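Known limitations

Files may contain more than one protein. Parsers should not assume a single record per file. Below, a two-record file is shown to illustrate correct handling: read the sequence, read the token line, then continue until end of file.
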Amino acid sequence: MAFFGLFSKEKKESLNKGLEKTKESFFSRLGKAILGKSKVDEEVLDQLEELLIAADVGVETTLTIIKRIQDRVAKDHYLTTSELDRILKEEVAALLGATDVEQSNADFELPADKKPYVVMVVGVNGVGKTTTIGKLAAQFHKRGKKVVLGAGDTFRAAAVDQLKLWGDRVGVPVISHGMNTDPASVAFDAVKKAVDMQADVVIIDTAGRLHTKINLMNELSKIKRVIQKFIPEAPHEILLVLDGSTGQNAVIQAREFTKATEVNALAITKLDGTAKGGVVIGISHEFNIPVKYIGVGEKIDDLQVFNKYEFVDSLFSPSK
């Protein structure tokens, strides 16, 4: 029986497939750790701690999970290894925050009172930032939303060209001034276009450079200022895209970008190509920023709205 069976069958299958490498690595080793044991003791918890760290959950988050399970053992006086799967799911889900179940299942919905809804996307080069923007545009467009894209990563010709290709593929306008132009000017024109055409959402790409953090901070601040000339409370969402396959490097990137700008949502990509899917838990817990989207494959529909219950159920359930 599923932990909180709320996803469609197709999305659940996509999630299970996307997390397969992490699941296989985790459960093959967990099975060996508890083989022949009937109760959860210190040895089992030590093994579980090692497995969670190996899955890139992170040391601090792992210790918090282990402490929660220890408290359950102490409270119940006896916890069997057959119950460990359920307890692990419950404690990790609790750690991911008090997300409303229905809201966490929102299918690429947009706030009705914010139009256009302005999303500024940040992240280093190579994490799948532009692809994530394209997939988001496709999902919103498929649901009848008017979408505008802004090609604000003007330091890479490939990023500008890639976003234009996504715009053509999806059928949405892309505002671009080409390479080596002012990103803030692109953002200004993108938001103006969105206001003029009464768009539902405008998504603005930005340059992914960490090695010049002060310049990056100044650049992002300038983009926000020009956006606010049209919509004072915008951007409504600053979405940080991280590559889940890089494990703890993604944590370092999150740390740097949260210093540079006010990130309030996360998208974690490429979880299908890694055994480090636990990094989603560690990042969410450490930074207290909601994971909004996860990428579990190459197809457009493999970018999913994150549901912590379904994620935990899939991650900590053995493969069929």
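...continuing to the second record:
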Amino acid sequence: MASSHEVLCINKSDRHNPHERITHIGGMNTDGTRWKVTQTEAIVGIESDKWAFYVNRGGRRVNVVVAVSGSGHKYLKTEADDATSNNLLSLPECQ
């Protein structure tokens, strides 16, 4: 069973280009320490059922899933919800 982790921040390869891929996601452990993994590590963790990631939007849990672009590249996104903005891309930068 996958361990569940809330994503609180992201890093992108070019913060000024909203279409650039996310390079890292991060959050906070229960002991108060921070965690950060690459997008590739997160994808492998999701696909192997090691990890499950989510974002919290207005008190609602929105799951992070693996998607495949038209050119066949895997990337992270959130499941469809009623928000018009991209839940991951709207997160602050990880430090």
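Parsers that stop after the first record will miss the second one. For reference, the second record is described as follows. Residues 3-78 form one domain.
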